[in-house]
Amino acid sequence: MTNATRILIFAVSATLALPAFCDDQQKAEKELTKITAMATDFTGRRAVNLTMSETFSVPRPKLVEARTQTGLNYGSLFVAEQLVKNGIGLEDIAAQLKSGKNIGAVANEQHVDWKQMTQAAKKFNSAIDTNLYKCFMSEKGSAAQDVADKYDVHYDGVKADADVSKNDISAAQDRFLKWKDQAAKAQGSDRDKTLSTGDERVAYSDHTGSGPVGSGTAGPGGSVSGGQGNSAPVGMGGPH
After folding, report:
1. Is residue 4 part of a domain?
2. Torsion angle of alpha carbons 120, 235, 175, 188, nearest 10°?
């Protein structure tokens, strides 16, 4: 086989592999966006922060510090924590973000396996659902855990938390209400049946517009794709 033939075969193989690689990353981004969208609500953010702490064995306040340092929303922080797990320092990641890269570019430079990232993110989203359900089953217990963990959701916010579409937030609201309803049924009660589904969704979005305290801190690389998103997060029923 001549060198020219080898080069041609390599070029064709690379061309065929690129679409599959992009598709894998896009699938991962969908799961990561679910994480970010759930964290636009205070109650959802508590569940996301707790789940990430349990998944990566990082104290909850340290995750808040990492977000302040990097400006990453929770979907992108999940990627960053996966990279840290693989041996990349958070300081190195923060430096690359400050240079203008987004977390997706940083991950690609580390040759991340997006298929594995997708599976890990799916598992993580399932764990979020479990913690969300537990929160609804015992809101006092959840609040007590926040105190014990020295976590305050009101100080857990960055500008990139708004880097999510209205459709993604709507899907997160459906997911949020599903587990709230499941908890209510398990407790022998139910949501207010005098409200229509649409009215209830509005009621659970009563702190839309101003966003959570602490969400005004700017930070680079908020999403895997690097988009800017909306100007403020939308809530689904967490505390003011």
Report:
1. no
2. 130
Tally the domains of the chain.
1
- Distance, CA of 192 to CA of 19 (rounded, Å): 48
- Choose among 119, 111, 29, 123: nearest CA to 76: 29
Half-sphere exposure of 54 (CA within 13 A, CB side): 14
Among 13-22, 63-72, 163-172, the minimum mean pLDDT is found in: 13-22
Indicate if the pLDDT at residue 212 is higher than 90.
no
Gap between the Cα atoms of 179 and 130, Å rounded: 9
Q: Which domain holds residue 67?
A: 19-203
Instruction: Please check whether residue 215 lies inside any domain of the structure.
Output: no
Using one digit for the tens of pLDDT, what is the confidence trace for 50-80? 999 999 999 999 999 999 999 999 999 999 9
Quick one: which of 131, 113, 119 has its CA closest to 52? 131
User: 77 in a domain, yes or no?
Assistant: yes
CA distance 25 to 107: 10
Whole-number Å distance between alpha carbons of 111 and 91: 19
Domain assignment present for 208: no
In this structure, the number of other CB atoms found within 10 A of the CB of residue 122 comes to 15
Cα separations (Å) of 39 from 16, 18, 72?
36, 32, 12
